[in-house]
């Protein structure tokens, strides 16, 4: 199948040609005709499958077909994070190059004035995070009454991050009659509940199994004690000569500590987390993308919206508390059909988190040890032998010559 069979105009086809896009991805094949036809859409697709183009291309096409050229906000894209907002904005710019469409991005944590200036120059498509959008709307710096299409990107994440009240406030400012599109890598019950209230007869598009992890990503689990994790990360990067590695931790402190540790081991790393200024975060991402540093250490803030064409390696220094974040993290590699490797370092205390991930993804992982970084065997053996110690009741029964009568325990090893 080619893009031309989806009903896209020659001008867009020529842009896609320049970008080297030859075949529409499955989400693009399914969503582009529905969006073009004006339907509401609820689409779930694996991360990195080309979902931004799936909504951007048909909306740019609609812009081209419009006779009046007045610049008013017709498309509003809401994203949970600044990084994703920047990414989606860049995609609109990329897909509409030379076609006279003005896309503007607005997010919190950065000065509002340049964003207002950009809006005043004329805006067809506004990509924004919910908080900054509300600020602009409440201060009457934007008019949302002209919006024709609303897109909630990563809708589940927006709900996870507690944006529901902001979203409801924004919805009140939008015209009742509009097209609404939900795009998300994962769907949960909350998202379905929200969709029922704001989508009208949506077309459901699911191109991959729900909550499936990115197809071409090899997932490897190393069992390792917490205090040896930093050493193992440095060893993996150094000994395998990995050049561009994205590393996730759960806390900001862990980001800072690991970044320092890697530095001591001669591995240049940038740190990205919520306490860093927007400028510092942008700089960190840029240094990573351009290869000035080998590693980017980040909290889940960076898990969405980060799109690096060739990113091959993701390391989960700590497993996330929320199993869905695992899917988003490892989806930063293996993008657009490329291969990737996701390594997770799991301490004995984190095994329950691994089980949550197994339940969500339907995968069964077999953890392995890295030579030289084996978990403390003494502790493991002690734990195992204390489990084997007979109870007082069993000892008394034995002394009285009773068999105990219960079912014999299966000799099967416990699944790890
Ligand atoms: P997304 O899922 O929208 O973040 O896109 C993931 C990556 O795939 C981005 O780097 C896009 O530029 C790229 N991409 C999107 N659609 C196509 C396509 N049809 N052919 C090749 N690359 C694509």
What does this entry look like structurally?
- The chain has helices spanning 10-19, 26-36, 51-65, 82-95, 112-120, 130-138, 155-160, 164-172, 189-198, 229-240, 252-264, 278-289, 323-330, 351-361, 377-388, 392-399, and strands at residues 41-44, 75-78, 103-106, 125-128, 149-153, 179-184, 203-206, 217-223, 245-248, 269-272, 295-298, 313-316, 340-346.
- With 416 residues, it is α/β, with parallel strands linked by helices.
- The strands form two sheets. The protein has a seven-stranded parallel sheet with strand order 3-4-2-5-6-1-7, sandwiched between helices. A six-stranded parallel sheet has the order 8-13-12-9-11-10, with helices on both faces.
- Helix 5 links the parallel strand 3 (103-106) and strand 4.
- The chain is globular and about 75 Å long.
- The structure holds adenosine monophosphate.
- Adenosine monophosphate binds next to helix 3.
- Keywords: ATP-binding, Cytoplasm, Helicase, Hydrolase, Nucleotide-binding.
- A motif (Q motif) lies at residues 1-29.
């Amino acid at each position: 199948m080619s893009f031309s069979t989806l009903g896209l105009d020659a001008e867009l086809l020529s842009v896609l040609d320049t970008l080297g896009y030859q075949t529409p991805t499955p989400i693009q094949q399914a969503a582009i005709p529905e969006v073009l036809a004006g339907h509401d859409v609820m689409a779930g697709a694996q991360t990195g499958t080309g979902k931004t183009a799936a909504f951007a291309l048909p909306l740019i096409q609609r812009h081209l077909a419009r006779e009046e050229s007045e610049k008013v906000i017709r498309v509003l894209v809401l994203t949970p994070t600044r990084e994703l907002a920047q990414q989606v904005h860049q995609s609109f710019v990329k897909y509409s190059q030379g076609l006279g469409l003005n896309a503007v991005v607005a997010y919190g944590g950065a000065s509002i004035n340049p964003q207002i200036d950009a809006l005043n120059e004329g805006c067809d498509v506004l990509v924004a995070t919910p908080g900054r959008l509300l600020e602009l709307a409440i201060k009457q710096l934007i008019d949302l009454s002209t919006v024709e299409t609303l897109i909630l990107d990563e809708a589940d994440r927006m709900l996870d991050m507690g944006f529901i009240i902001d979203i409801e406030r924004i919805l009140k400012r939008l015209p009742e009659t509009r097209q609404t599109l939900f795009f998300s890598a994962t769907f949960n019950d909350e998202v379905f509940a929200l969709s029922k209230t704001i989508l009208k007869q949506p077309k459901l598009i699911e191109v991959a199994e729900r909550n499936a992890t990115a197809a071409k990503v090899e997932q490897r689990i190393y069992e390792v004690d917490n205090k040896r994790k930093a050493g193992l990360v440095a060893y993996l990067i150094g000994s395998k000569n990995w050049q561009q590695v994205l590393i996730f931790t759960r806390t900001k402190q862990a980001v800072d500590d690991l970044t320092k540790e890697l530095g001591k081991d001669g591995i240049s790393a940038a740190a990205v987390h919520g306490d860093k200024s927007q400028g510092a975060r942008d700089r960190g991402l840029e240094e990573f993308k351009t290869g000035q540093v080998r590693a980017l250490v980040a909290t889940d803030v960076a898990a969405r919206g980060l799109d690096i064409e060739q990113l091959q390696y993701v390391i989960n220094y700590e497993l996330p508390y929320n199993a869905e974040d695992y899917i988003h993290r490892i989806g930063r590699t293996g993008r657009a059909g490329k291969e990737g490797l996701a390594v997770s370092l799991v301490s004995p205390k984190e095994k329950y988190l691994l089980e949550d991930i197994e339940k969500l993804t339907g995968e069964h992982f077999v953890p392995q040890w890295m030579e030289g970084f084996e978990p403390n065997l003494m502790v493991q053996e002690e734990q195992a032998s204390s489990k084997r110690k007979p109870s007082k009741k069993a000892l008394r029964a034995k002394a009285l010559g009773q068999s105990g009568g219960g079912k014999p325990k299966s000799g099967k090893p416990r699944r790890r």
